[in-house]
């Protein structure tokens, strides 16, 4: 030690820090991308040199006790230490010789690490050569030029030809353990500073970092056979000539072409090929509109004539619905992958112009496909998401979706993200569109590696995509491929980009297309001939022309050809369409009793539950014995009975396991064993379907999109999303507007998603009072001015014609039935349920088994059944209402003794409007004033929806008077006393039988 101590003491502080940092990082002692001196372990003396001495002493005692990088370093230092004289004294040498030797080795290792961490900043990523992909022209001073690098690391030009030991954290040597400094720099620049920029050193897993290094640093890895090059060329031909064909035939049509990033087609096909090779059988894709038609044609392999049909303005779709523009539509296709000769199922999910809105939808659909296949590890099913650069950086749903990627109930075991980095967003320069260096920086939050690549280098793109697919299927984690490209035309084909980006587009107009560049390269190296290249072009042009001719013969365009989620066998029985009927939704009494017993017990032995929960379970048991249910038990029985029938139930949202209002308790927690839980619902029947209940991340947009995608995969599942409070759906409005309300009309896509939205004016302030029912009703498509014909199957056919169902149940039995009806209907519609808060424990909000047993069904309207029906001609007022306010009205009517003069009728289903039953109620009380009473303000709630429909029923011969709160900007007051005053006011009006005398309607 006395011989090495002077050497150690002469080591520069910077070199010591670098060495210590390297060791710490390699051991993953700290999950930081870089260390700082404050983070270094040290001896009691506090010095890093002492730490190094300690490492050296440990190495002397046992070389295996230290990390192999220390072992390599000390071996090298020992071999090159000064020799000793026979007397044991060191031979005379320069006092700085050994210090310089160690410093040089440390400097080389630091240099290697600098390239690995920051090399992407100097990579040649922009095909146009005018922008820096990281929005910064500054070059890290330790990577500027060879001489600058040498000076920064205190190396000299004479060191360039010296041999240096390579650390274990690099693979640039291949089978060699030493290289000259000149060759080290050349290989590092070849790997990190050409057309590929790698961001991965922030990943806190050494094995994963080593895997990436090996894939890119190993000499000769990016080699392609002539056959692979020819395949790549053929795919580029198809990608580019498809866009050229559309431009020639429909020059004045928008198509959002792929020009400038034609390499995306072979890129996606490479990901699919590699994934298929690794066992993937089903791939779900999501993407915005740019390049969608090309992907449909050349990746999904949709018939070209079907695509060309979409351009004919004279064709009308034969299927119901409004349809959507061609670059929003989806597709589902099973075919043979020609590279692997294996079956592959590809589906491209339909997406509106809301760009990244499709991201969570794709993830939910992928999760469902994995669930139904029993593919818990994602070995058979995976997703690919294509993004635009501006949207990827700017839209929050991208972040929400990434944060679902590793959650147990939401993970899809890795997604390959492909960013089409046009370096512009519509007309916005990227320097004005994001604050982060790259558009992809959001992916760093989940330790996803990011591979930037110049899209004008097809071979680099293909290699990166192959590695990305292998990464996903090896580590089951997300990965991002950033295709740095350009947009040859404007935002669409009719747009003029020179208005806002004149210099960029002058360069784009001079830019040689990637197909010509690559063809010239292959021709010059002899891989293909010019004649072969021209024949490949002519061959595909001929395919397009023939398809174009066939498209003219098509008389009818069927939107159903564009379905992204077909449900084979669901809509037919023995080849015939299902009848438009719905069986009764009740279940046998013994089933209800059994579910009540399990719901009030703990199926696992030695499982200690909270004492407060014990009281809740005892209360459930007492209700089951009395054959009554509250809201929570009714839900339990709806779910449990469906599970018995083989229907998978999935309930998702913030805090749904316990329930926001502590009423559900579907997951029991052992009070003495951490993370030991029990879900009694999964212990109901020996061969039941599985029940999934999962607390989500604090996200609405992302999670609701996820559950929508989950419900899309199969009709034989009840998928529910519950908002913590009803107004939380505000931040998921895009999913509601673009997918749920309009999905069937645009894409002929049925979906049975259920939204549970807690709603009610409880005097708790404007936040979390209203689920905004007026918004859902405004988007309902039933006609307020058309008096329907009441046929035998009116109820079901009305449901079939609507875009969604909106209900506000006033009894647990109604809630039970509407959940079961959602599955028993012969089709699927979204169901919006305004669920209660105070009614969860209201003593009057109970239902008996008699209202739920076999033969019973959901009541769209619950008519008056009290004293008033005994003499309907004497009833002076008929009040219609929905939801919680019914209990306020019942109580007030009783206190005023008006049971014989005022009748109360409840609308359990609001949309589609129950014209037939409302007409019956109005006729039953011919002399009564008709009143609509709601607790919401007049400009909110239901009045604007129900009023014109009442007028249609009544032929405008009788008024429907409004009783409720006055119009307001906020949905509720924040003052408890003001709430009670306004409640008192509208209740007084509701039962003032002279309130509307002399008023005009």
From TrEMBL:
Localization per Swiss-Prot or TrEMBL: Mitochondrion matrix
Molecular function as annotated in GO: metal ion binding; oxoglutarate dehydrogenase (succinyl-transferring) activity; thiamine pyrophosphate binding
Record carries keyword RNA-binding: no
Annotated protein name in UniProt: 2-oxoglutarate dehydrogenase-like, mitochondrial
Domain of life: Eukaryota
Primary localization class, coarse: mitochondrion
The gene coding this protein: Ogdhl
Catalytic reactions of this protein: N(6)-[(R)-lipoyl]-L-lysyl-[protein] + 2-oxoglutarate + H(+) = N(6)-[(R)-S(8)-succinyldihydrolipoyl]-L-lysyl-[protein] + CO2
Requisite cofactors: Mg(2+); thiamine diphosphate
Quaternary structure, from the entry: The OGDHC complex comprises multiple copies of three catalytic enzyme components, the 2-oxoglutarate dehydrogenase (OGDH/E1), the dihydrolipoamide dehydrogenase (DLST/E2) and the dihydrolipoamide dehydrogenase (DLD/E3). OGDHL/E1-like isoenzyme may replace OGDH in the OGDHC complex in the brain. The presence of either ODGH/E1 or ODGHL/E1-like isoenzyme in the complex may depend on its tissular distribution.
Function: 2-oxoglutarate dehydrogenase (E1-like) component of the 2-oxoglutarate dehydrogenase multienzyme complex (OGDHC) which mediates the decarboxylation of alpha-ketoglutarate in the tricarboxylic acid cycle. The OGDHC complex catalyzes the overall conversion of 2-oxoglutarate to succinyl-CoA and CO(2) while reducing NAD(+) to NADH. The OGDHC complex is mainly active in the mitochondrion. Involved in the inhibition of cell proliferation and in apoptosis.
Entry GO terms, CC: mitochondrial matrix; oxoglutarate dehydrogenase complex
Region of interest called Disordered, as start-end residue ranges on this chain: 77-99
CDD domains according to UniProt: TPP_E1_OGDC_like
Taxonomic placement: Eukaryota, Metazoa, Chordata, Craniata, Vertebrata
SMART domains, A to Z: Transket_pyr
BP-aspect Gene Ontology terms: glycolytic process; tricarboxylic acid cycle
PANTHER family on file: 2-OXOGLUTARATE DEHYDROGENASE, 2-OXOGLUTARATE DEHYDROGENASE-LIKE, MITOCHONDRIAL
Domain Transketolase-like pyrimidine-binding: 629-842
EC number, UniProt record: 1.2.4.2
Coiled-coil regions, chain positions: none
Enzyme class: oxidoreductase
Entries under InterPro entries matching the protein: 2-oxogl_dehyd_N, 2oxoglutarate_DH_E1, DH_E1, KGD_C_sf, ODO-1/KGD_C, THDP-binding, Transketolase-like_Pyr-bd
């Amino acid at each position: 030690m006395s011989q090495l101590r002077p050497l150690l003491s002469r080591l520069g502080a910077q070199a010591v820090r670098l060495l210590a940092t390297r060791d710490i990082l390699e051991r993953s002692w700290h999950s930081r991308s870089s260390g700082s001196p404050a983070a270094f372990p040290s001896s009691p003396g506090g010095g890093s040199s002492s730490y190094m001495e300690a490492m050296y002493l440990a190495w002397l005692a046992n070389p295996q006790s230290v990390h192999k990088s220390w072992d390599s370093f000390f071996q090298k230092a020992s071999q090159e230490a000064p020799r000793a004289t026979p007397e044991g004294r060191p031979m005379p040498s320069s006092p700085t010789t050994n210090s310089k030797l160690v410093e040089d080795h440390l400097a080389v290792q630091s240099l290697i690490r600098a390239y690995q961490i920051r090399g992407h900043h100097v990579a040649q990523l922009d095909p146009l050569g005018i922008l820096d992909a990281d929005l910064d022209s500054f070059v890290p001073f330790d990577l500027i030029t060879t001489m600058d690098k040498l000076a920064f690391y205190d190396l000299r030009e004479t060191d360039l030809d010296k041999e240096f030991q390579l650390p274990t954290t690099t693979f640039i040597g291949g089978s060699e353990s030493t290289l000259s400094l000149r060759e080290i720099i050349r290989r590092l620049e070849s790997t990190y500073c050409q057309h590929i920029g790698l961001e991965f050193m922030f990943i806190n897993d050494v094995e994963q970092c080593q895997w990436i290094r090996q894939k890119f640093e190993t000499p000769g890895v990016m080699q392609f056979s002539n056959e692979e090059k020819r395949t790549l060329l053929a795919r580029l031909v198809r990608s580019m000539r498809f866009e050229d064909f559309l431009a020639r035939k429909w020059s004045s049509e928008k198509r959002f072409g792929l020009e400038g990033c034609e390499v995306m087609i072979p890129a996606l096909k490479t990901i699919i090929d590699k994934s298929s090779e690794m066992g993937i059988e089903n791939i779900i894709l999501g993407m915005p509109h740019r390049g969608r038609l090309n992907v449909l044609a050349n990746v999904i392999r949709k018939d070209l004539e079907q695509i060309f049909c979409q351009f004919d303005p004279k064709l009308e779709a034969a299927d119901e619905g409004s349809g959507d523009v061609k670059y929003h539509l989806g597709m589902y296709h099973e075919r043979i992958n020609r590279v692997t000769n294996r079956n592959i199922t590809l589906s491209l999910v339909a997406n509106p112009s809301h760009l990244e809105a499709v991201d969570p939808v794709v993830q939910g659909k992928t999760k469902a496909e994995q669930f139904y296949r029993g593919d818990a590890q994602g070995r058979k099913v995976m997703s690919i998401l294509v993004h635009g650069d501006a949207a990827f950086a700017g839209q929050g749903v991208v972040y929400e979706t990434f944060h679902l990627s590793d959650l147990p109930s939401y993970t899809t075991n890795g997604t390959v993200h492909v960013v089409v980095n046009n370096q512009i967003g519509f007309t916005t320069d990227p320097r004005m569109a994001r604050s982060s260096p790259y558009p992809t920086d959001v992916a760093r939050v989940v330790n996803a590696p990011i591979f930037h690549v110049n899209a004008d280098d097809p071979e680099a793109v293909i290699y990166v995509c192959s590695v990305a697919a292998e990464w996903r299927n090896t580590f089951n984690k997300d990965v991002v491929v950033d295709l740095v490209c350009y947009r040859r035309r404007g935002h669409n084909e009719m747009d003029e980009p020179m208005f806002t980006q004149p210099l960029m587009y002058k360069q784009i107009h001079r830019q040689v297309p990637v197909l010509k560049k690559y063809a010239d390269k292959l021709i010059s190296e002899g891989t293909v001939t010019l004649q072969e290249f021209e024949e490949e072009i002519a061959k595909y042009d001929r395919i397009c022309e023939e398809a174009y001719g066939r498209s003219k013969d098509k008389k009818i365009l069927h939107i159903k050809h564009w379905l992204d989620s077909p449900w084979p066998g669901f809509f037919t029985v023995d080849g015939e369409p299902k009848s438009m009927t719905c069986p009764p939704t009740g279940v046998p009494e013994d089933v209800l009793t059994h579910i009540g017993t399990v719901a009030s017990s703990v199926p696992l032995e030695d499982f200690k539950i909270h004492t407060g929960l014990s009281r809740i379970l005892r209360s459930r048991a007492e209700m089951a014995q009395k054959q009554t249910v509250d809201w929570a038990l009714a839900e339990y029985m709806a779910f449990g009975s469906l599970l018995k029938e083989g229907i998978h139930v999935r309930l998702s949202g913030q805090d749904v396991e316990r329930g926001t209002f502590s009423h559900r308790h579907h997951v029991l927690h052992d009070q003495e064993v951490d993370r030991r839980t029990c879900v009694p619902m999964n212990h109901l029947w020996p061969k039941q379907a599985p029940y999934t209940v999962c607390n989500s991340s604090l996200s609405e947009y992302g999670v609701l999109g996820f559950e929508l995608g989950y419900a899309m995969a199969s009709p034989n599942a009840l998928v529910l999303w519950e908002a913590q409070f009803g107004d939380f759906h505000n931040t998921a409005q895009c999913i509601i507007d673009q997918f749920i309300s309009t999905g069937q009309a645009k894409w002929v896509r049925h979906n049975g998603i259920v939204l549970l939205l807690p709603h009610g004016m409880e005097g708790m302030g404007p936040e979390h009072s209203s689920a905004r029912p007026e918004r859902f009703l405004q988007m309902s498509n039933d006609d307020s001015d058309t008096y329907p014909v009441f046929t035998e199957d009116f109820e079901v056919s009305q449901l079939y014609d609507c875009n969604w169902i909106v209900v506000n149940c006033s009894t647990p039995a109604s809630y039970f039935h509407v959940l079961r009806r959602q599955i028993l209907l012969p089709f699927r519609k979204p169901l919006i349920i305004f669920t209660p808060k105070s009614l969860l424990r209201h003593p009057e909000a109970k239902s008996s088994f008699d209202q739920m047993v076999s033969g019973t069904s959901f009541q769209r309207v619950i008519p008056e059944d009290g004293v008033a029906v005994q003499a309907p001609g004497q009833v002076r007022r008929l009040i219609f209402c929905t939801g919680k306010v019914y209990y306020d009205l019942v109580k007030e009517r009783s206190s005023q003794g008006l049971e014989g003069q005022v009748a109360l009728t409840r609308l359990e289903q609001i949309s589609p409007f129950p014209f037939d039953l409302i007409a019956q109620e109005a006729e039953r009380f011919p002399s009564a004033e008709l009143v609509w009473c709601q607790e919401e303000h007049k400009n909110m709630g239901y009045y604007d929806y129900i009023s014109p429909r009442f007028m249609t029923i009544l032929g405008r011969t009788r008024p429907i008077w409004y009783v409720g709160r006055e119009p307001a900007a906020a949905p509720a007051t924040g003052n408890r006393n003001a709430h009670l005053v306004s409640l008192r006011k509208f209740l007084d009006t509701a039962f003032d039988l002279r309130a509307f005398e002399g008023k005009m309607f």
